Amino acid sequence: MTTADFKKMIVEGIPGKLPAPKPYDQNLNHAPRRKDILSPEEKKLAIKNALRYFPLQFHKILAGEFARELIDTGRIYMFRFRPDYEIKARHIDDFPYKSRHAAAIMLMISNNLDTSVAQHPHELITYGGNGAVFQNWAQYRLTMKYLSEMTDEQTLVIYSGHPLGLFPSHKDAPRLVVTNGMVIPNYSSQDDWERFNALGVSQYGQMTAGSYMYIGPQGIVHGTTITILNTCRKLRGKNKDNGLKLFVSSGLGGMSGAQPKAASLAGVISVIAEINPKAINTRYTQGWVDEVVSDTERLAERVNDAIKGKRAVSFAYHGNIVDLWEQFARYNIKIDIGSDQTSLHNPWAGGYYPAGISFEESNRLISSDPEKFKELVRESLRRQVKAINTHCERGTYFFDYGNAFLLEASRAGADIMNSQGNFKYPSYVEDIMGPMCFDYGFGPFRWVCCSNDPADLEMTDRIAAETLGKIMKDSPLEIQQQLSDNLLWIEQASKNKLVVGSQARILYADAEGRIAIAKRFNSAIERGIISAPVVIGRDHHDVSGTDSPYRETSNIRDGSKFTADMAVQNVIGDSFRGATWVSLHNGGGVGWGEVINGGFGMVLDGSKETDKKLTMMLHWDVNNGIARRSWARNSGAMFTLEREMKRTPGLNVTVPFIADDRLIDEALSE
Ligand SMILES: NC(=O)c1ccc[n+]([C@@H]2O[C@H](COP(=O)([O-])OP(=O)(O)OC[C@H]3O[C@@H](n4cnc5c(N)ncnc54)[C@H](O)[C@@H]3O)[C@@H](O)[C@H]2O)c1
Predict the structure, then answer these.
(1) Using CA atoms, how far apart are residues 410 and 419, in angstroms rounded to an integer?
(2) pLDDT at 424
């Protein structure tokens, strides 16, 4: 297909002639059949809702087809309207546009739906089992059409995948404002999501799926490497010799699949349990897992060999994580670091496979007997926690990996609470990422080269490394470790060959680093050293972007961790400081109703105005969270804020006085 044909199809939007039905592609990973939750009346409503996108002459054929999709899959994806062209990141100028910034957004959407990037591409799911870009193919087609015709005086509004339309605005406004899954708080249970999503009126956008900022596995490999490196440092404390550590966890899926690769980069032996043979095969053929073993006795032998040989080997255990924990306890294998990355944010619809029954049987039970399936999941979680507790009594450091493991285990009645009524184990943010990274402003900054040219990516890597190197020379001791980890990462980035899809890079940086790197990119674009615009953004899993009491804000201890002011303020603040697009989501990572998170994208186009915008917006985007973390009395954030106020005119933040606990105890005992 020529570029001109491709452009024509984008501009066409919903085609005037009904396209032929699409065959089901067996070679791709498909979303599991969703729960049959709608009443007969609601099913009618779901079909009526879906038909809103199409002219009346299509309705007779489509009504029957959509009814079948709803029965067969639990959703109406409108498979027939999946376009015939390949969906992938392309050069920005290969998209049809009137606004070049809108073309950059098209590139980012296309990357999220690329079959080599997305988890269930035909169901428009990028990652995490339910992280949707759109609810159906009509929404995709309409959105791309709107983006192709919008000017720099309009803003596109998206409600949970549904393009509400183009509205007049102005040049400095965001070109796109996205919300995902925003519901009235009392209607945010798991079943509410199932119902609203089946009706076609809401979606779970995860974090970077519904905000078009996913960059394939690289982002997660980097984040997981940083987590494992910092966990080893935490365990080491003041001791110099860290020894070779053994890490045990589960999941070789979208994000969890990064664990073996990251463990190897961090110099740690890893054993990751995975029940789905397809997921194992993906990671093994990719070279992210060294060995696959299905027998726990053999696995124990191979792990002992690796320990003796001092080799950071990565193993995939084909089986259930519960069996792995139980068997390793029996064989007396000393696990240093333990975690879990099953998709427990989505426990009843295929996120967690219970022990004791086969993978296939689970998939059947999810829709044929959901109540029985739920009970099996709960029982399995109780068993898993029991085995983990045994290991932890023997010295394992266990942490929750932001997948709602502790939360769901507690709901299942597992022995997971301590005598004070708190979880026995910390979340990785509570103990590691929060105090060691986020409180100092370090988080997952990322960029995408809109030329789609590896040469541009190489240039940006070089510029970023030089910039970080310079910053490091004058930086305080408190952030030297973070800077040096990321400098090393960016220096080796191209060697690690982690680019899948768009030409993207990630590194952890603070406000100073993010602004300095973005400014230098913008100037290089202006001078033609980088050949096309660059999109900057971040994961929502960051300093300020996310309010999530069991994850991003789990180390906020002033009682405010169940509030969501920070995440909402962040998106509002980004939008009027120059973001090209912003998004605000309910759900993401830990589950629907458990988190509010947001993100942004900004197109660097080499202009003077962009230079001003990026400085203002990135400064707010990090320091909003620093100010909140400082107000919560987090020492790292208080240090960072004090430093920031000294060097930023106009920044004047309320800082806490720290009361003496004894005084308060005395006051209460009087
Ligand atoms: N990697 C990170 O940094 C990170 C950060 C935050 C949250 N998370 C969370 O981690 C979870 C996993 O994310 P993902 O994108 O990999 O999801 P995913 O659904 O793609 O992968 C999870 C994998 O776990 C496997 N699995 C489920 N139950 C199992 C069991 N009992 N035993 C063995 N394997 C089992 C599944 O087959 C699946 O392949 C999500 O809840 C996500 O929100 C990850």
Answers:
(1) 14
(2) 96
In angstroms, rounded to a whole number, what is the distance separating the alpha carbons of residues 555 and 550?
Answer: 9
324 lines ligand 1 (CB under 6 A): no
Centre of ligand 1 to C-alpha 344, Å, is: 7
> Which of 75, 82, 107 minimizes the C-alpha distance to 92?
107
Question: If pLDDT is split at 50, 70 and 90, which confidence band does 238 have?
Answer: low
| pLDDT, position 590 | 83
- Nearest CA, atom 17, ligand 1: 128
Q: How far is the CA of 251 from the centre of ligand 1 (A)?
A: 5
Instruction: Determine whether the shortest distance from the Cβ of 342 to ligand 1 is under 6 A.
Output: yes
β-bridge mates for residue 132, sequence order = 125
pLDDT bucket at 242, cuts 50 / 70 / 90: low
Query: What count of other Cβ atoms lies within 10 Å of the Cβ of residue 662?
Result: 8
Strand partners, 217: 215
Whether residue 219 has its Cβ less than 6 Å from ligand 1: no
**Nearest protein Cα to ligand 1, atom 40:** 343
Residue 48 has pLDDT above 90, yes or no: yes
Q: What is the whole-number distance in angstroms between the Cα of residue 403 and the centre of ligand 1?
A: 7
Tokens 């396209």 sit at which residue? 19
Residue 275 beta carbon below 6 angstroms from any ligand 1 atom: yes
Q: Which two tokens stand for residue 434?
A: 């929060």
Which of 536, 605, 596, 588 has its CA nearest to residue 572? 596
CA dihedral 362, 368, 369, 375 (to 10 degrees): 20
Helix (H, G, I), strand (E, B) or coil at 390: helix
Smallest CA-to-CA distance from 272 within 234, 327, 325, 332 is with: 325
Indicate the pTM of the whole model.
0.90
Q: How far is CA 30 from CA 125, 126, 207, 442, in A?
A: 9, 11, 20, 35
What pLDDT does residue 614 have? 98
Which tokens sit at 112? 């999220």
Lowest pLDDT segment from 131-140, 303-312, 353-362, 495-504: 495-504
| CA angle 447–565–159, rounded 5-degree value | 65
Cα(274) to ligand 1 centroid in Å equals: 9
Mutate which of 256, 274, 405 for ligand 1? The one with the most ligand atoms within 8 Å of its CB, which is 256
Cβ of 279 less than 6 Å from ligand 1: yes
pLDDT digits (tens, 9 = 90+) for 522-540: 999 999 999 999 999 999 9
The pLDDT mean for the chain works out to: 96
Q: What is the pLDDT of residues 190-231, one digit of tens each?
A: 999 999 999 999 999 999 999 999 998 888 899 999 999 999
Convert the pLDDT of each residue in 417-437 to its tens digit. Answer: 999 999 999 999 998 999 999
3-state secondary structure of 445: strand
Q: Is the CB of 128 under 6 A from ligand 1?
A: yes
Residue given tokens 């397809």 in the structure block: 278
